[in-house]
């Protein structure tokens, strides 16, 4: 790959790096375990974050809303995932599951965007504003999960005019079919680059 990721215009987006997704004891880990382990998810996430920091690429946290039991009680149209999450309470506010995984703690200079309620990290948050204020034009998106928050954030980013890179072995999903749809069917319709971790590291 050509080295297109200049440190002054590139941002690395860490989507939903919570214990409930990434730690073995997390509420949602059992549902992603097969796919996560097949792509060596944690190893690849660490490698990308480490290399981005070494390269001077700014890191942006894109966190999901940390839930409370009555969040959606009076909503007119919560989506199906929000209804399901009200029962299981992943990323519950004030709990271990809703904390960032210990391997990915924010560091000085990182930006933590406002929490997103649905799938997109852009909708109803300050992510676009934060990226623009830091001069970011190209976004590399990694984290959880491929066919929901990663796809929604990446697609929205593309429509806002960002150059979008997906890293297909630095994300996971609840099934192999969902991963295939995210990277082989849907991703090519909006992403400017769909790469492996190895390919990305060579380009940073």
Automatic annotation (TrEMBL):
Asked whether the UniProt record includes Hydrolase among its keywords, one would answer: yes
Going by the UniProt record, its keywords in alphabetical order are: Hydrolase
Q: Which Pfam families does the entry link to?
A: Isochorismatase (PF00857)
Q: Which GO terms describe its molecular function?
A: hydrolase activity
What residues does the Isochorismatase-like domain cover? 11-183
Q: Which domain of life is it from?
A: Bacteria
> In its keyword annotation, does this UniProt entry include Oxidoreductase?
no
Q: What is its EC number?
A: 3.-.-.-
Would you identify the family this protein belongs to, as annotated? Belongs to the isochorismatase family.
Q: What is this protein called?
A: Isochorismatase family cysteine hydrolase
Can you name the source organism?
Paenibacillus aestuarii
């Amino acid at each position: 790959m050509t080295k297109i990721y200049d440190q002054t215009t590139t941002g690395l987006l860490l989507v939903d790096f919570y214990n409930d997704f990434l730690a073995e004891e997390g509420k949602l880990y059992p549902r992603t375990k097969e796919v996560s382990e097949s792509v060596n998810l944690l190893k690849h996430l660490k490698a990308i974050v480490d290399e981005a920091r070494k390269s001077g690429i700014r890191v942006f946290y894109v966190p999901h809303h940390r839930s409370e039991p009555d969040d959606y009680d009076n909503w007119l149209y919560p989506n199906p995932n929000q209804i399901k999450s009200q029962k299981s309470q992943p990323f519950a506010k004030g709990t271990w599951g809703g904390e960032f995984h210990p391997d990915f703690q924010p560091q000085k200079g990182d930006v933590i965007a406002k929490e997103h309620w649905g799938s997109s990290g852009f909708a109803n948050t300050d992510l676009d504003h934060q990226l623009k204020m830091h001069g970011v034009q190209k976004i590399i998106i990694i984290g959880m999960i491929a066919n929901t928050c990663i796809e929604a954030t990446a697609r929205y980013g593309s429509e806002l005019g960002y150059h979008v890179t997906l890293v297909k072995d630095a994300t996971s999903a609840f099934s192999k079919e969902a991963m295939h749809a995210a990277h082989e069917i849907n991703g090519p319709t909006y992403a400017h680059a769909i790469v492996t971790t190895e390919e990305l590291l060579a380009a940073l």
